[in-house]
Amino acid sequence: MSRPVILCVDDERIILSSLKSQLMNNLGDTYQIELAESGEEALEILEELTESRTEVPLVIADQIMGGMYGDELLARIKTLLPNTHGIMLTGQATAESVGEAVNKASLFRYISKPWDEEDLVLTIKTGLRSYYDQKELRRQACYQSIIHKVLQLVITNVSFEEQLSQALSAILSTGCFSVSAKGSIYTVDLEQADLEWSTKDPDLVMISQVNQGEAPESNVSDGEVGQDVTLITSSPSVRYYRAPITLQGKSVGILYIYIDETHDETPQVKAFLSSVCHTLAGMIRISQYNRALEKHSLNLEQLVEKRTHELHQALRKQEQLNDIFLDVNKKLNYFATTDELTKLMNRRCFFERADAEASRARRYGRKALLAILDVDFFKEVNDKFGHQVGDTVLEKVAHVIVETIREHDVIGRIGGEEFALLMPETDVDEGKEICERVRLAISSNTVVVGDHCISISVSMGLSEVKDEESTISGAMIRADQALYDSKHKGRNLISYN
Ligand SMILES: [Mg+2]
């Protein structure tokens, strides 16, 4: 890298020679001393130096020269190289020209001819220190601004990859690394990484790069990242910073920044890169948390979906069980209320229904009649033809009764061959008429069983449910007595009591 230049401009060669000799003696180890005999030549030299990116901290210019005057030259240099300091050298400078130079060219000092060497060197050294102090201040301000910019990226609503890409561009924009601005960022693969990495040296993948600034092949994932920012020179033309990105002592990434030969390594650059990597580590951590959160949410959704599915299945099962339960209840209710042989109400059910009718009749002052029917000579049927035929006879009798009575009459089988009939809203005459129809219907039918034709008849006892009675128990007793009368009188009869 070429040394920085102090440019001396004077139209008198002897003065230039004297300046050069004194500067070489005092500053020749660090600086190149360039000479120009006119303002125009000075500008040409500066143009060449700028092209070769050689730094020019200081220009010493004579005021009175043929062609361009010193104050004008310094003013023009100010526009070309705003940070370069200017010192005016003059034997007969007017206050006006010094003032011009101060105002337009930010003149650092002026020195009167003839000068004292010690004074000259001191002034120049002060100027150089001021130049480098200001340069360092600018660099610090730039670093601060870049770190701030990278920090701001953390809260921007862009993807992690985009955040890193913008961060890398910002870092390279400091201009202190290389004109070609080249670099890359490698991080752990967040798709695969857990919040706590189990392996010490995770595989790194390139997330972002600028100007093909990828890492030298052997340098990624070699497990020897270390904790410090390192300047590596792998060949004269390839130099780069390798800055580890670490979280709690574990490597989660590497930042590569390529530099050219004009770059001067300073502790401040390393400190800056170290700060940047600290911020990048924070970005990686936040991104990890976000991804873990997304993954967790997804798992939670899947779990909720699974549980919902299980719940629906359980509900369906419950519905099936409910249907079975209802069916069983229905059957239980049927068997609890129905006479299995005749399908009429059984005794208990008949009494419940008949009592309810009696109660209603009493409440509304209506009439109700109760009849008891008994199959005549049923024991003989059983004895003669067997119980199976007896059952068939009972079924037939039940069928005929149901066919003959009215829809709202209540009929039940209350004993072996005994039936009871409650007729609501019915007076005695109507009741007798219905009973007569039943008696006739049964006696006019015969039951055919195999070769046998069995003639059947019933005896009946009829009684009214009295106005004050809210159950049929009284009527049952009276009807039973009337039935006894019918049996006694010869059967196939209806008696009223
Ligand atoms: Mg002169």
Automatic annotation (TrEMBL):
<feature type="modified residue" description="4-aspartylphosphate">
    <location>
        <position position="62"/>
    </location>
</feature>
<dbReference type="InterPro" id="IPR050469">
    <property type="entry name" value="Diguanylate_Cyclase"/>
</dbReference>
<feature type="domain" description="Response regulatory">
    <location>
        <begin position="5"/>
        <end position="128"/>
    </location>
</feature>
<dbReference type="InterPro" id="IPR043128">
    <property type="entry name" value="Rev_trsase/Diguanyl_cyclase"/>
</dbReference>
<dbReference type="InterPro" id="IPR011006">
    <property type="entry name" value="CheY-like_superfamily"/>
</dbReference>
<keyword id="KW-0808">Transferase</keyword>
<dbReference type="InterPro" id="IPR029787">
    <property type="entry name" value="Nucleotide_cyclase"/>
</dbReference>
<keyword id="KW-0597">Phosphoprotein</keyword>
<keyword id="KW-0548">Nucleotidyltransferase</keyword>
<feature type="domain" description="GGDEF">
    <location>
        <begin position="366"/>
        <end position="497"/>
    </location>
</feature>
<protein>
    <recommendedName>
        <fullName>diguanylate cyclase</fullName>
        <ecNumber>2.7.7.65</ecNumber>
    </recommendedName>
</protein>
<dbReference type="Pfam" id="PF00072">
    <property type="entry name" value="Response_reg"/>
</dbReference>
<dbReference type="InterPro" id="IPR001789">
    <property type="entry name" value="Sig_transdc_resp-reg_receiver"/>
</dbReference>
<dbReference type="GO" id="GO:0052621">
    <property type="term" value="F:diguanylate cyclase activity"/>
</dbReference>
<dbReference type="Pfam" id="PF00990">
    <property type="entry name" value="GGDEF"/>
</dbReference>
<dbReference type="InterPro" id="IPR000160">
    <property type="entry name" value="GGDEF_dom"/>
</dbReference>
